[in-house]
Amino acid sequence: MPDQMTKGDAGRIQSSQQQGGKDMSSGGFAARAQSAGDKNSNAQAGGQGGGGNNNNTNSGGQGQKK
Predict the structure, then answer these.
(1) What does the alpha-carbon distance between residue 8 and residue 6 come to, in Å, rounded to a whole number?
(2) pLDDT at 45 over 60
(3) pTM above threshold 0.90
C-alpha cells in the first residue's frame, strides 16, 4: 500500500523535522505522521493472524516427558 504512511516514513519525517528545527510538539506534523504510521502498522498486523492471539496451536502437554 504505497499511499499509506509507514513507520519508516514517519521516522524520516521526524528526523528531518528535528534537524530543521521544526515543530516537534505532540500536535506537530511529525507527531501526526507517527500516529498515522502506527495506525497503519497496527491495521496490517490485525489482518494477519488476528493480533497474535489465535496463532497458538500448542495444546500444552509438552515438557512432561517421563
Answers:
(1) 5
(2) yes
(3) no
